[in-house]
Write a structure and sequence with these properties.
Distance between the termini: 38 Å
Low-confidence stretches: none
Number of strands: 11
Shape: elongated
Structural class: alpha+beta
Radius of gyration: 19 Å
Order of helices and strands: EEEEEEEHEEEEHH
Mean pLDDT: 92
Largest sheet: 8 strands, mixed
Strand content: 35-45%
Number of helices: 3
Amino acid sequence: MSSKFKIINKKNIHKGFFEMNEVTLKYKKIDGSWTNNIKRELFGGAQVSAVLPYDPIKKEIVLIQQFRPGTISKNFNNFLYEIVAGIIDKGESAETTARRECIEETGCEIKNILPIQGYFPAPGSSESFYHLFLGEIEAFEGSRSMGLESENEDILVKCYNFSKVKQMLQNKEIVNGITLIALQWFFLNICKY
């Protein structure tokens, strides 16, 4: 089904670290008729690139933990287990961003990269689009503290063997959406045990 819609009005109602837009639109329904005007606030959305770093030789996955403000209203550890992700800079490709962010957030350089999937994480409320990759890296011992001071990042980085990560998934220790998608894809397509 091809999407047909008309934007009546779109205005910016907030511009900060992120943007919020108010959009008035209508769209053609399945039966061919048009909806009445609909007014929605849309998160301006970030164009994001994310990568699941893994070492196929040592059979380890790199996960990071960092504070996430969106968790403050829930009874969760505010430092979520995540994969590497960042906003795509203007003029930068999604793959270049994935490689850059992997170095910034883990200290690991990607040797080989494979696109997994692009998707809308919350199309009912956001214009964000995420590009997801699998990146082959060389795992390391212990843990690292990484992140850009200019962005107030404080990132704990560790390598976990495949079975430990699978156990973390089963124990529902991983609650970050993009990380869940990447790891489920990984265990369905790369590491089938």
